[in-house]
Amino acid sequence: FRNIDLFQQGIYYLNFQIYHQQGEQVFYAAPYNILCKEATNSKDVHLISPAQPEELGFSSRSFLIKYCDEEIDINEIGVFRCEVELSQDFEIIPITVEVNLMFHDFVGRIDQTTLDNFRNSPPGFVCASSTQVHLWNIMEGVNQFWPINFDELHTCLVNTSFHGVLIDFRFRPKPQLSFGQEQLQSLKQTSKPQELDISECLAEYLFHQKKEASTQEIDSVYNSYIKRMLFIHKKNKQLMETWTQKCPKVPGSPNEKPSLLSDKVEIRDTKVVAELILQEIQEVAVLMHKFVATFIDFIYNSHKIVNAHLQAEFNETLKDKLGESIFRDVKSVKEFALTSDSEIGNRHRVVSRTVRKNPYYKNITPMPAMQVNYFPERKEHPILFHDVVTKNSDTSLSLTWDPKCFSYIQNNTGGKHLYVLVHGFQGNAFDMRMMRNSILMLKPNALILCSHMNEGETDGDIREMGITLSQEVTNYILDFCPRDLKKISFIGHSLGGLIIRAALPHLVQYSDKMHTFMTFSSPHLGYMYNSSKLVDAGMWFLKKWKKVKSLKQLTMADSSVLEETFLYQLSSYPGLEFFKYVALVSSMQDNYSPFESSRIEVGPKASTDPNKGRLYIKMATNILSSLAVNKLYRLDVNFKIQKKNFDNWIGRAAHIKMLECETTMKMIMYACPELIE
């Protein structure tokens, strides 16, 4: 359990319940065993009380959370048995794992006396948040890692692995299909209940009242039941061998290539065949029970090995799922291109609309274990266009990808990577909270500075805001990582991107540590060619009546000589050449930051403007020519904005979505893991 951004200190524990639904009925799985690893430090005051079974689930040990980034080793296994009614067409019924985050508001110091009082008289807990994980296709077996997260007020990670194994098929006989109404009435009137013939009932169920079965029918039944169990046994055994070369001995391993049942049966009588099928199912079920015991014991004793493998597989699978909504294009140039494709934004819009209507996209197969609402509905999923301009001649789309690039467990070895997040106009540090949490989920060792020294000051001079930011960064480094700082990355939203550029000349002492410069909807080239008349009118009002200096600078109205304006001078500021990676995120739907200005591109308006166009091109040239990178990333996000409100009407909705859409941040990090490595 890792606390990322829980709002309240106190005592927490996790409650798990497993169930499935058939129609309106809910059937709960039965918890029958809990395995607990002893805490590394038995006197650890974070661990309050042990795990305990409940009637419909089990509860983990309770633990104390006091600070951000605390990590608690729970190390528990809850074993459930779930019986699911199976239809003859083997329809897949998802199994639901409900996870409740239970909370007790505790204030004060915890000592041994307090611990004893808690254990002897447990306090009342309330459910702070709840989520569900669906296990799909449990018939084929599930072995998957999932980092469970709760809502935005309870941002934490529960590193969990889910394992589902088919153990047995059980036949629950109902009145025989061949019974007529008179026979059923006769049975009801009989004083002594008549014992059902199990073999005959099973034969009628499997072979639909036939007296004799063909070879194909027998093989079909064999493949559906017995061979399926043997396949799952083999699959899980191979999985253990993959996890470690030293695989424990699996008791009673069945024949890897069993002969078909039709080869063994001389008679085609369905009742005889049913008896043999039932016998073989029972024999394999015994082996499966023994195997499950070995499997659980293996996971219990080798949980670090298992989690390492499952986490890598999870990263690989999640990359592929997110990749269904990512379109990448690579272009090779001698110098970074200045002129843009005037229709690129419109093409992206058309492609996004087409993709969301595509039947394949609407029905993408879910992951074997998947948290509910982890992805938005397909019709609302953002589409990311990843345009790469490279100075290399190779334009292949093959990218290096290490499934171990993201970890969900803290590792304090190596130097620190500091991420500086900078808010925009009239914003605050809280605006960057989603970005902060998204990074910490995948990079638990990261240091995050959400800049706050310019809060309430964004009406002022951008140059002065840059100096303030540089002082804030310097002080943070001296306080928290004076000796082990390895990398610094800057992420800015809107005006924050320009504040970062204004700060860089004052951070030259850290130039060898600069890693990534990434901005979201930052108007690097100002508002000279803004397409929104409403935004222009709003800016005019703020400049005229509110005397907002930063907006004067962004619109290049702070001097009558354009070459003397701050924005033009900023284009020649040193700093961007320090970085190994530069990424510019924009959205054609965002009217608060002009599309080409956010991407540092020269559009057709600037190219054909005989007056100001030359100056606009010069600013773009100054910025791009200073870059020392071989690749420039431009990422265009297309949002599906459903609500018809004022923000949507004036084009502000997409500007805010950059801060609020967690899926967008995940897509960028998985598409470009090198940005936050």
Which helices and strands, and how do they pair?
Elements: E1 2-6, E2 10-22, E3 25-28, E4 30-36, E5 47-49, E6 52-53, E7 57-59, E8 62-65, E9 76-81, E10 95-104, H1 112-120, E11 126-135, E12 142-148, E13 154-164, H2 181-189, H3 198-207, H4 215-224, H5 226-243, H6 261-264, H7 270-301, H8 303-323, E14 326-332, H9 344-357, H10 359-362, E15 369-371, E16 383-390, E17 416-422, H11 433-442, E18 447-450, H12 462-480, E19 485-493, H13 495-503, E20 514-520, H14 533-545, H15 549-554, H16 566-570, E21 581-586, H17 595-599, H18 604-608, H19 613-625, E22 631-638, H20 646-650, H21 653-660, H22 662-671
Parallel strand pairs: 14-16, 17-18, 17-19, 19-20, 20-21, 21-22
Antiparallel strand pairs: 1-13, 2-3, 2-7, 2-8, 2-10, 4-9, 5-8, 6-7, 10-11, 11-15, 12-13, 16-22
Helix pairs in contact: 3-7, 5-7, 8-22, 11-22, 12-13
Please give a handful of descriptors for the protein shown.
35% helix; 677 residues; alpha/beta; 21% strand; 8-stranded mixed sheet; 22 helices
